[in-house]
Amino acid sequence: MDVQTGLILGNSITLHSPCSYWWGSWGMAASSAEHDFVHILANMQDKCPPPVRQLRIFNFYQWEVMAYDRAETLSLLENVLSSPADFVVLQLGENIADTTTLAADLEELLHHLMSRLHPKKLLVLGNFWANETVDNIKQAACKAAGATYISLKDLQTPEFMAGLHTIVQDADGTPHEILHAGVARHPGDAAMKEIARRINDALAANE
Q1: 73: helix, coil or strand?
Q2: How many CB atoms lie within 10 A of CB 156?
């Protein structure tokens, strides 16, 4: 059976370490590790024979917020770009405030990933938190780079967010209540499952 290797670059939706208001090392607001989109994607069985996916994940939040010189953050990717990847998923944008140079910066990032890894597929997720400007820039950059854009526009509603007072578990299974408004805005389990499904469909397309 062939093994597909993948790289996912994201923000806290992809991976967040434990802190005073969050208790796991996985996608923030998922009720447990197996319910974040990365773990769901890794376990999806979509074809016969089903793919076995080995995923590397990296929180690349710095790229979002360093609008004055996003190119400087590319050196942070050296370790994760040292091994091949059949596909790359880019889940970034929710923390972008300054879009002055975003179009050029995103095209540079996509070119960097393509030239270093030569993946069979490069997928870019739309924003989970509504931002039409950022999403339009993402779509244009994907068209220029030959990448695939995956819209999340229909998930940008409160019912797909985890919400305050939702109970989540830490790595030991101990329950915790979400009381932080920022955490509550992250994807709940239903949204995480749908994000994984859309990535899986894009990976399976034309195979």
Answers
A1: helix
A2: 17
For residue 99, give every residue at least 6 positions away whose Cβ sits within 8 Å of its Cβ, in sequence order, or none. 67, 133, 134, 137
Query: Does the pLDDT value for residue 63 go beyond 90?
Result: yes
Q: Closest by alpha carbon to 55, among 40, 70, 77, 65?
A: 40
**Six-digit token string for 177:** 């209540």
* Rounded (10°) angle between helices 132-145 and 102-117: 40
**Phi, psi dihedral angles at 204 (to 5 degrees):** -80, -20
* Phi, psi for residue 23 in degrees, rounded to 5: -125, 5
- Per residue in 11-29, pLDDT (tens digit) is 999 999 999 999 999 999 9
Return all residues near 187 (Cβ < 8 A) that are at least 6 apart: 13, 27, 29, 30, 37, 128, 155, 160, 161, 162, 195
- Domains of the chain (ranges, CATH numbers): 3-204 (3.40.50.1110)
Q: What is the pLDDT of residues 115-141, one digit of tens each?
A: 999 999 999 999 999 999 999 999 999
Per-position b or e across 38-55, b if 16+ CB within 10 A of its CB: bbbbbebeeeeeebebeb
Give the residue from 137, 130, 125, 126 showing the smallest Cα distance to 185. 130
Q: Judge contact between 36 and 57, C-beta under 8 A.
A: no
DSSP helix/strand/coil, 31: coil
Are the beta carbons of 141 and 107 closer than 8 angstroms?
yes
